């Protein structure tokens, strides 16, 4: 939006009104919520007003992102909505939440896991690309976000009961047009929780070797493997996150390779090249000639134009 020259009187009045609003901890939030997914399905209606976010919520978001090994590529806003929502507006991602609702949940459940699971659910909507769709909330999207929530809460140390406490208290038994019934949502959380549990058990069973090998390669048809020291960041272009396995470490290198790091080894699994498609400036292919596409905003799509991941700056 272009700036419009205005007189000094306007700026004085604006400053006074802005300072007045800030002193009471609230001011208008000028975003549209056409693309959104809410936790329980209530529409976002009327004007939005932003309040000062609580330190507890900021810390909860930091804990969630720390478990994922990612930076928060969205803004957190405490606003006047019913519960919580993931929103995208003007190419910016937002997590909106009601502080009153979160406080009520903590008091009713006697644990902060309820609020954390709700925030993880909304983050899951963003990471799965649901907010890019015009349809907003729908049962399949909600179940994906619930599964993500269960996965993350296990990683953070929650029991299955703690991961399910918010849905157990809030979800409707029969569901709705936008949200599935309680039983299905509880099952989705359990699936995500168990998936994280299985991964942690597998890691414990496969203890790393003390012997470090160097300059070795595998005979794999689509990759090369080498046991190496941690890669210097100067040789990395960015990190790649795939929704199907967000816990794994993938990077794009300055040699235009897509690599997967596991323990002390590095596996080259694809090559980054330029694309002649306007909507996807780059694409990655493997030795089997399977292609995935990178949009100008860093989001990654498969051949069916389904979002499967995104890139992150280091």
Structure, described:
With 314 residues, the chain is an alpha+beta fold. The chain folds into two domains: 183 residues, no CATH class; 89 residues, no CATH class. 35% of the residues lie in helices and 26% in strands. An eight-stranded antiparallel barrel has the order 8-9-10-11-12-13-14-15. Strands 1-3-4-6-5-2 form a six-stranded mixed β-sheet. The longest helix is centred in the middle third of the chain and has 24 residues. The protein is globular. The N terminus is likely disordered.
Nutshell version of this structure?
The protein has 314 residues and is of the alpha+beta class. The chain has helices at residues 8-23, 55-68, 99-109, 113-127, 139-156, 160-170, 182-205, and strands spanning 26-28, 35-38, 49-51, 75-79, 84-89, 92-97, 224-227, 236-242, 249-253, 257-262, 265-277, 280-285, 291-294, 299-301, 307-312. 35% of the residues lie in helices and 26% in strands.
């Amino acid at each position: 939006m272009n700036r419009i020259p205005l007189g000094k009187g306007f700026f004085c009045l604006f400053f006074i009104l802005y300072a007045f609003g800030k002193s009471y901890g609230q001011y208008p939030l000028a975003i549209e919520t056409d693309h959104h997914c809410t936790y329980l399905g209530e529409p976002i209606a009327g004007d939005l007003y932003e309040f000062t976010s609580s330190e507890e919520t900021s810390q909860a978001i930091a804990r969630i992102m720390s478990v994922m090994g990612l930076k928060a590529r969205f803004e957190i806003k405490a606003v006047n909505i019913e519960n919580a929502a993931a929103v995208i507006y003007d190419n910016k991602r937002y997590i909106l939440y009601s502080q009153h609702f979160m406080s009520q949940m903590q008091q009713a459940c006697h644990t902060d896991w309820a609020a954390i699971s709700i925030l993880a659910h909304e983050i899951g909507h963003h990471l799965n690309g649901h907010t890019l769709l015009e349809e907003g909330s729908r049962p399949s999207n909600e179940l994906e976000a619930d599964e993500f929530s269960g996965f993350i809460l296990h990683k953070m140390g929650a029991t299955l009961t703690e991961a399910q406490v918010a849905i157990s208290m809030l979800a409707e038994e029969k569901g709705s047009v936008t949200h599935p019934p309680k039983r299905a949502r509880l099952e989705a959380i359990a699936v995500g929780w168990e998936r994280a549990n299985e991964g942690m058990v597998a890691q414990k069973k496969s203890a790393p070797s003390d012997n470090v090998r160097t300059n070795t390669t595998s005979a794999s048809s689509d990759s090369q493997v080498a046991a190496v020291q941690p890669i210097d960041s100067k040789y990395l272009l960015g990190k790649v996150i795939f929704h199907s396995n967000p816990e794994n470490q993938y990077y794009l290198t300055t040699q235009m390779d897509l690599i997967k790091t596991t323990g002390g080894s590095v596996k080259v699994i694809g090559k980054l090249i330029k694309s002649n498609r306007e909507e996807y400036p780059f694409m990655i292919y493997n030795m089997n000639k399977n292609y995935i596409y990178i949009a100008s905003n860093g989001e990654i799509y498969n051949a069916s134009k389904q979002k499967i991941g995104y890139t992150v700056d280091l």
